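Lab notebook, design round three. We kept the backbone fixed and only want residue identities now. Task for the bench partner: fill in a sequence for the structure below.
Input structure tokens:
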């Protein structure tokens, strides 16, 4: 008899467990003692009908305020308040639906320790960012290359569009390499689950924002990478996508209601032209298409005007910081988002994490367009609170024409000067993340016609100009690649896979030119790391003189003179021509070779010199 009773108890218990397993929570857990005490929990059970469900929550310090139902009965949402009394533990959710009682738990965790000290630290101009694609950097664990059950089972290093097996363990294995480069901060293409049928190598088509991609090693590998970085005094940027989901995201395939996505009578793509957002003469239909049009057929556009969607995205960002120890966010496709909603998400993050830093990908045409999307001095009805942007304008409108165009009244290096002159449009231009290439763009060495002198100038500029410099993996060893298609700029980092004959980590197999370039990048990075003028100093530029462009980084303790000669001939430079910054200095030291420089010197054509001035 006793045995029978136990059997029944076991059976009932099993039903509850089965039910509990079928229930998903978003956020998957939350934390006690957050500043914002309110959380909205989206509850999903794809084999239940919650249309008339009731919910009870039993937990000290947790109060249920409201339950929301959706047209899709697989979901309910619960607004809850977590008071200071609440302790970490399992919060009991009892859902009664169609005569059935589902008893399930949702976890409250303790907060991460070290807020602002070893996570949520933000970025500053003292940082140097290394950007990589985990699938293409290093394969630290071949066992996760293919995960049974995921839609994409491709694995082929010979194909630019199929997965190569790189992962987070591979990145963790090479933190010393980053430190040799003087890198302080890591940014990777998105690491959340992308359970899509193909093109899963880039990570921009999320299918679950609360799960780290298993082929990258899952949650544990990300946690381990974050801890390893922080133990070395480094930081972690998370790439986050608010604009779209992957087509196989559960919120697309099984949306709580139709209005979680922007719906169109027929497939409608964004036209990618941001001008319609601030053009005083724009049409409403152009504006709607820009913001609500889909990025691609595989990336449905998220409806930010839906308040549940806004909560889902906001909480996911906060959850990511608290769970994985994120220090900053790079927001993908920022200009396609509802910027009012973005402002609220940015503010929610800052309210919880005062030092958190967010920069948006605003791939736009010109400085005024770019300034529109960040904190600026423009007199427009919309005022962005975004801290910074990837500085596309300074790249396309500045350094590239400086090196690729012949100098004239309005071409060549004057464009670099003029683009920087427009910094008055930004509240704080030095927050901008400056770069020479990324995963969408032709690699810098190829953009500059594979010219070593030009590529060398480009990097010298990157490390000495105002802003937060960002490298793109592999370009430091002169990797080439034209972004047509983008797979060609996403090739494997040499040495990341066992058996690679070329290995940039050990320098084995690098050509003399590649090695010497890598050593120069290391020299620049380490000089910058110890230079207060480059990290936090002021910036002054002089009008270019027939292709000779001189600017200074300076503070009370250090003055660094940067001389870029884009002319076709050797030029003479005299400190006395730059009195405002050179008064009191007799000469300087060339940071590349340590050579002393007098008050006048010559600089060869198409070269750049960085000179620390001496008294
Ligand atoms: Ca792997
Ligand atoms: Ca959009």
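Proposed sequence:
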């Amino acid at each position: 008899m006793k045995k029978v009773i136990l059997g029944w108890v076991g059976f009932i218990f099993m039903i509850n467990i089965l039910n509990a397993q079928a229930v998903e929570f978003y956020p998957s857990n939350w934390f006690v003692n957050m500043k914002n005490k309110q959380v909205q929990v989206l509850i999903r059970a794809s084999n239940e009908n919650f249309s008339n469900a009731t919910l009870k929550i039993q937990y000290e310090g947790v109060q249920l305020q409201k339950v929301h139902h959706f047209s899709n009965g697989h979901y309910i949402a619960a607004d809850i308040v977590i008071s200071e009394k609440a302790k970490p533990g399992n919060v009991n959710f009892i859902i009664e639906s169609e005569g059935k009682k589902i008893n399930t738990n949702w976890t409250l965790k303790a907060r991460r320790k070290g807020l602002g000290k070893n996570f949520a630290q933000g970025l500053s101009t003292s940082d140097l960012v290394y950007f990589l694609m985990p699938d293409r950097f290093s394969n630290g664990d071949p066992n996760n290359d293919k995960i049974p059950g995921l839609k994409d089972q491709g694995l082929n290093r010979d194909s630019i569009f199929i997965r190569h097996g790189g992962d987070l363990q591979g990145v963790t294995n090479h933190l010393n390499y980053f430190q040799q480069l003087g890198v302080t901060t890591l940014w990777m293409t998105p690491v959340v689950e992308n359970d899509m049928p193909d093109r899963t190598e880039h990570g921009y088509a999320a299918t679950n924002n609360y799960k780290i991609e298993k082929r990258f090693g899952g949650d544990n590998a990300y946690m381990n990478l974050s801890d390893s970085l922080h133990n070395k005094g480094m930081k972690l940027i998370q790439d986050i996508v608010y604009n779209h989901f992957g087509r196989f995201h559960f919120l697309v395939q099984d949306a709580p209601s139709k209005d979680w996505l922007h719906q169109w009578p027929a497939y409608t793509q964004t036209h990618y032209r941001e001008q319609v957002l601030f053009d005083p003469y724009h049409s409403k239909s152009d504006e709607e298409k820009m913001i609500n049009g889909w990025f691609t057929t595989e990336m449905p556009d998220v409806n930010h005007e839906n308040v549940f969607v806004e909560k889902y995205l906001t909480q996911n960002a906060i959850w990511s910081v608290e769970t994985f120890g994120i220090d900053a966010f790079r927001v993908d496709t920022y200009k396609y988002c509802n910027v009012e909603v973005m402002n609220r998400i940015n503010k929610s993050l800052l309210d919880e994490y005062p030092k958190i830093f967010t920069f948006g990908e605003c791939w736009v045409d010109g400085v005024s367009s770019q300034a529109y999307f960040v904190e600026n001095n423009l007199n427009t009805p919309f005022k962005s609170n975004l801290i910074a942007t990837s500085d596309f304008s300074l790249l396309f409108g500045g350094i590239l024409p400086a090196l690729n165009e012949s100098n004239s009244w309005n071409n060549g290096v004057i464009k670099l000067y003029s683009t920087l002159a427009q910094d008055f449009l930004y509240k704080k231009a030095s927050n901008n993340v400056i770069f020479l290439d990324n995963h969408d763009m032709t690699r810098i060495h190829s953009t500059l016609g594979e010219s070593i002198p030009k590529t060398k100038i480009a990097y010298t500029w990157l490390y000495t100009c105002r802003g937060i410099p960002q490298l793109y993996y592999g370009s430091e060893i002169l990797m080439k690649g034209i972004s047509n298609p983008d797979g060609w700029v996403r090739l494997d980092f040499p040495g990341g896979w066992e058996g690679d004959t070329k290995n940039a980590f050990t320098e084995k197999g690098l050509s003399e030119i590649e090695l010497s370039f890598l050593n120069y990048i290391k020299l620049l990075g380490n000089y910058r790391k110890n230079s207060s003028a480059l990290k936090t100093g002021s910036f002054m530029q002089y009008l270019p003189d027939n292709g000779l462009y001189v600017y200074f980084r300076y503070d009370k303790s250090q003055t660094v003179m940067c001389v870029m000669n884009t002319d076709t001939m050797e030029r003479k430079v005299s400190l006395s021509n730059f009195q405002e910054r050179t008064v009191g200095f007799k000469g300087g030291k060339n940071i590349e070779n340590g050579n002393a420089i007098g008050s006048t010197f010559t600089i060869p054509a198409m070269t750049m010199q960085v000179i620390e001035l001496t008294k």
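Keep this in mind before ordering anything: The longest strand covers residues 100-109.
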